[in-house]
Amino acid sequence: MHETKRRDLLGGLALGAGGLIAARAAAAEGAADAHARGHDVGPGVPGPAVVPHKAEDPIAFKYSMDATEPKLTSGGWAREATVHHFPISQGIAGVHMYLNPGASRELHWHAIAAEWAYVLDGQCQVTVIDPNGTTEILNFGPGDVWFFPRGHGHSIQTLGTEPCHFILSFDNGNFSEHGTFSITDWLSLVDPAVLAQNLGVPADSFASFPKGEVYIQQGKVVPLDSPAAQEVNSRVSPNTHRYRLMQQQPTRAFPGGTINLVTVDEFPISTTMAGAVMKLQPGALRELHWHPNANEWQYYARGNARVTLFGSGGRMATADFGPGDVAYLPQGYGHSIQNIGTEETEIVLTFDSGHYQEISLSEWLATSPTQLLANNFGVEEEVFAKFPKQQVFIAKG
Ligand code: MN
Ligand code: MN
What we know:
By secondary structure, the protein is of the alpha+beta class. Helices cover 17% and strands 34% of the residues. The protein binds manganese (II) ion (MN) (2 copies).
């Protein structure tokens, strides 16, 4: 805008209603100038339909997954959070799965989602086939992560005499673990004569196969020191489906907490999801931030935290989370997490992008001109002298 018009505009604003008319005229003139310079400044260009939010519109971003009815089987159980129960979670669905000693989650695949997992406790063996026909057999323990690209066939077998349980996260909120493509379901629906032809065996070979989906079945305990438990066929990066997240040094460490982050950079097969384990000490705050490129899904494994979520237009939500609770933070929504308990809080986080991006409040303010900030907030520049000069990430309590 020309300097003279800028002065006119400011003068107009100071003059009340008459001034506003002048200001609008000046703004229209400025727009006309911009048009003349070839800039597309609208108005008149219809944008996408936007449903306006009201400040009082609630944002329901908490779901107590572990308080829901599980899908129970002979060998364990699974609880899930999908958009059907938790409507905000459009981008990511989640599951808590628990396998008894000797149980296995049967051979299956997922048509519409990749699977990212974090082992909370116990030992298991995973078998996964990729489209090249290569099968990887891998053992997992607490703190390990697996990633199965969409459609890779897989199964999970508990090893040893302890149960094994893990958090699964899927890059599609519509995905239901209770609607997977399971081998027993499929084979029970195919004419045994077709199976016999396919595999070159007599049709009665399938006579005692299950008549429907097994899902998780109880079997014999596989001892940790048995040949079956030890015969693995692990591959190396970039083809392996395993990343030992908690065997790494924290990606970032602060007096108030740590984060172990894994993205496609460290774990090349995980092209569509990233994840992390964050630990917050009592009172510590994961600072205000947002993620430009991904939705965030959280499972609270230990401790208690208060999460704030900013949804624009005066909308703000706050909720308290404890073990077994899930949070969903839509892409671009501002949020913060504070440990409000007396113990360490541990959170499993996932994102529906292989790349991790964030912008945090402290870094934004630290890198903006103080003149700009003073003008923005209507205060003196000195106010910002004591603000942090770099990103805080986790502020101690
Ligand atoms: Mn699966
Ligand atoms: Mn976040």
